[in-house]
């Protein structure tokens, strides 16, 4: 509840331009904290298998990727012309940052190479970490700036298009998570992937999709949002596809923990687990949500 309240408060401040801020200024620090927290947890998880990654280099890369998406969007800049902004170009800068971070990992391994140093394994794990955390966060940043770039930076009301794509992603995925946990705990009997994640059930998955569809309807239709711009396929397609992608993200983190023999990614958030436990379902859902909004009408 505390995390949800914090997000809603910051989303309100960002949407209304509190303090004269530009779009994403209130939310971008959260993306940076999530990037650092997620990378730190991955570094600790790989250390359990005696694979020591250059955490400082990965932190810089994971921060640079979503920052590049923000600064690559003209909607983020001072005095910019949002009508000329391209969401694909903005994400292109994130890919440039990702490539630079990957090249830095290669250079680090080249300069520090020793026999039997498991350089290729470290490189693979590091690039995977950047792709799993940094790039999805760039898509999340792109979602916040997407509609502002298309409709103009003057929209600052709470129901303006600028904040709706981001809220739609978070609502669909997190309501699905809550529904899956609640129903799965109460009536779940049939295991979804028993070896990988014994706690997940088909009953919970069905509840997750139902919850995602309800959240998509509420955000895109039920709350009276009057913009003609909708994601591709409307709220039904958005709720279903993004909901499924969210479940895949949750299972992806389960794969990490199972392979690295860890119960939780961390304990930085108390009962919620670690940062990755909080954002895992968002990571694979973000690119899907971004695509549906970009292709929307």
Succession of helices and strands: HHHHHHEEHHH
Radius of gyration: 19 Å
Strand-pairing-aware structural class: mainly alpha
Most strands sheet: 2 strands, antiparallel
Query: Mean of residue pLDDT?
Result: 86
Calculate the terminal CA-CA distance, rounded to whole Å. Answer: 34 Å
Q: Tell me, briefly, the overall form.
A: globular
Uncertain parts: 78-84, 148-161
In what order do the strands lie side by side in the largest sheet? 1-2
How many individual β-strands? Answer: 2
Number of domains: 2
Beta-strand level of the residues, as a percent range? Answer: under 5%
Tally of contiguous helical segments? 9
Assign a percent range to the helix content: 55-70%
Account of the protein in words:
- The chain has about 300 residues and is mainly α.
- It folds into 2 domains: about 140 residues, no CATH class; about 140 residues, no CATH class.
- The chain contains 9 helices and 2 strands, in the order H-H-H-H-H-H-E-E-H-H-H.
- Strands 1-2 form a two-stranded antiparallel sheet.
- Helix 6 crosses helix 9.
- The longest helix is centred in the middle third of the chain and has 33 residues.
- The two termini are about 35 Å apart.
- About 5% of the residues have low confidence.
């Amino acid at each position: 509840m505390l995390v949800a309240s914090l997000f809603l408060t910051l989303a309100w401040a960002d949407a209304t331009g509190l303090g004269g801020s530009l779009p994403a200024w209130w939310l971008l620090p959260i993306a940076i904290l999530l990037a650092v927290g997620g990378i730190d947890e991955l570094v600790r998880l790989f250390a359990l298998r005696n694979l020591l990654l250059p955490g400082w280099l990965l932190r810089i890369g994971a921060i640079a990727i979503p920052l590049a998406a923000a600064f690559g969007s003209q909607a983020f800049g001072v005095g910019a012309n949002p009508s000329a902004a391209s969401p694909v170009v903005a994400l292109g800068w994130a890919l440039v940052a990702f490539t630079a971070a990957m090249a830095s990992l290669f250079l680090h391994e080249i300069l520090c190479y020793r026999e039997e140093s498991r350089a290729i394994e470290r490189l693979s794990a590091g690039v995977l970490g950047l792709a799993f955390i940094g790039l999805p966060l760039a898509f999340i940043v792109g979602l916040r700036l997407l509609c502002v770039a298309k409709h103009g930076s003057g929209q600052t009301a709470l129901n303006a298009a600028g904040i709706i794509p981001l809220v739609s992603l978070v609502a669909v995925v997190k309501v699905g998570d809550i529904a899956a946990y609640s129903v799965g705990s109460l009536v779940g009997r049939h295991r979804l992937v028993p070896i990988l994640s014994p706690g997940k059930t088909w009953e919970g998955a069905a509840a997750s999709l139902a919850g995602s569809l309800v959240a998509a309807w509420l955000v895109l239709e039920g709350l009276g949002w009057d913009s003609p711009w909708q994601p591709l396929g409307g709220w039904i397609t958005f709720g279903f596809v993004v909901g499924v992608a969210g479940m895949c993200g949750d299972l992806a983190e389960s794969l990490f923990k199972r392979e690295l023999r860890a119960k939780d990614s961390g304990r930085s958030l108390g009962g919620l687990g670690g940062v990755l436990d909080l954002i895992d379902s968002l990571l694979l859902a973000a690119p899907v949500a971004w695509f549906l909004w970009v292709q929307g009408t």
